[in-house]
Design goal:
With about 450 residues, this protein is of the alpha+beta class. Helix content is about 40%, strand content about 20%. Strand 12, helix 14 and strand 13 (about 375) form a beta-alpha-beta unit. The chain binds adenosine-5'-triphosphate (ATP) and magnesium ion.
């Protein structure tokens, strides 16, 4: 459209610019919340570091084919939830719905099998799924996850990975945690069980809802996942994986449980726990927390020994988990664990051009020492400045007027009680250090 026709068509109503809103299911994280997000992420870096994990940063989009192959074309995620588009060169690209596929792709691409095994990685960042938005379910959401790739499939690795998530949650003081575990068998025993399950489901088909009826064909294991009230009674009568595990899987699962007990990790065995993604095998687990309503799963994970090979890499063992960071944060907020957003340490109330020069220097020195300083850009009456300092949650106001500048003695006012005292600049820094102002921010 040429410029003239664009303006020519513009009506009066259109002259007012459109007011934009974030896309449905996608949200801003505002300053009142970001301190908690940062606290959670810093805790993840610290705790995962103590377990010998290193961070990997992955792209937000990948070839669609990577997810189709890794996550599985039959899954809800790939069949209806991915944001997929055609790039300008006609290749198909998707926003990542999860990150395990990318970690495996990176492991292969960077020949990480040549590093000491296993390779222990963690990541954090946004994921994208076109689901129905509700509390704890968004279209852009955040995950913190970890993967152990390579080496062997010793049950001790499964237990250590689970122990690490629980340690992280404990450190955050997440409330009402419940850890469910299950074994969903391997390539040998699972397909046999799936057939047994399918046959049993066929017999009770009429008692199931439409979704479950469809899943008898596409993915019978997912029927066990059903939350539909009317199906619960009949599901309870279905054959269970535990009775169909091969000897190796049964032994592996028993040992994972023993090792969890050794570590003092409390779990509940849940035979109906299956994972939504195709690539899982043997150990699967899910952790729920309180205050989240029906979206109460904060972490899902499990073993996926065949995945790297499926993506064209060498045979590689793998296990990992993904934490839903949005839900984790919701749960912390519900239980009142959210830290107050930081205010200011010092608000500089200056008056007069000469005082402004001193205020600029004072702000520079105080900031260099690590304090959160508000330096108003224009002159204010002291009364107004103090009101503003209060609104910003400042602990102190540093009053700089003609007198202070000429005497070199600055007035520090404590806003909580209105008391004030004079200090030279070096005395002031010493006083602030001794009273540990901004102590948490500065290291
Ligand atoms: P759910 O059963 O709640 O749909 P899921 O099995 O699809 O979860 P995973 O793919 O295992 O979830 O992802 C791991 C974690 O990521 C979940 O336990 C949850 O905390 C979080 N998560 C998944 N989808 C969303 C979403 N749309 N919005 C917010 N968090 C999500
Ligand atoms: Mg889901």
């Amino acid at each position: 459209m040429s410029e003239s026709s664009a303006t020519g068509q513009q009506s009066k109503a259109e002259a007012k610019p459109r007011k934009f809103q974030a896309i449905k299911g996608v949200r801003d994280l505002l300053p009142a919340e970001t301190p908690l997000w940062n606290h959670v992420e810093e805790t993840a870096h610290a705790v995962f570091g103590t377990f010998g994990f290193s961070e990997i940063r992955l792209p937000i989009f990948e070839p669609t084919e990577l997810f189709a192959r890794a996550v599985g074309g039959e899954t809800d995620i790939v069949s209806k939830e991915m944001y997929t588009f055609e790039d300008r060169d006609e290749s198909m690209i998707s926003l990542r719905p999860e990150a395990t596929a990318s970690v495996c792709r990176a492991y292969i691409e960077h020949n990480m099998q040549q590093l000491p095994q296993p390779v222990k990685l963690y990541y954090m960042g946004p994921m994208f799924r076109r689901e129905r938005p509700q509390k704890g379910r968004y279209r852009q959401f955040y995950q913190i996850g970890a993967e152990v790739l390579g080496g062997n499939d010793a049950p001790g690795i499964d237990a250590e990975v689970i122990d690490m998530v629980m340690t992280f949650f404990d450190k955050l003081e997440l409330q009402g945690l419940e850890l469910d575990i299950n074994s969903i068998g391997c390539r040998e025993c699972r397909p046999k069980y799936v057939e047994v399950l399918r046959a049993a489901l066929m017999k009770v088909k009429v008692q199931l809802g439409a979704d479950s009826q469809r899943r008898i064909e596409t993915n019978p294991l997912r029927v066990l996942d059903s939350k539909l009230e009317s199906e619960q009674e009949v599901i309870a009568t279905l054959p269970r994986m535990a009775a169909h595990l091969c000897a190796e899987c049964a032994e592996h699962f028993a040992e994972v449980k023993r090792q969890l007990e050794l570590r003092g990790v409390i779990y509940r065995e849940n035979w109906r726990l299956v994972r939504g993604l195709d690539y899982y095998m043997r150990t699967t687990f899910e952790i729920t927390a309180q205050g989240l309503g029906s979206q109460n799963a904060v972490c899902g994970g499990g073993r996926y020994d065949g995945l790297v090979e499926l993506l064209g890499g060498p045979p590689t063992k793998g296990i990992g988990f993904a934490i839903g960071e949005d839900r984790l944060i919701l749960s912390l907020q519900e239980s009142g664990k959210a830290p107050a957003p930081p205010g200011r340490d010092i608000y500089i109330a200056w008056m007069g051009e000469k005082a402004f020069a001193t205020a600029i220097r004072a702000a520079k020195d105080l900031r260099a020492a690590g304090y959160r300083v508000e330096l108003p850009a224009t002159e204010q009456k002291f009364g107004k400045a103090l009101g503003q300092a209060d609104k910003l949650g400042s602990r102190y106001a540093l009053v700089l007027g003609e007198d202070e500048v000429s005497s070199g003695e600055w007035t520090l006012k404590t806003l909580a009680d209105g008391s004030q005292k004079k200090y030279t600049e070096s005395e002031l820094l010493e006083y602030l250090r001794d009273t540990n102002v901004g102590g948490q921010q500065r290291t």
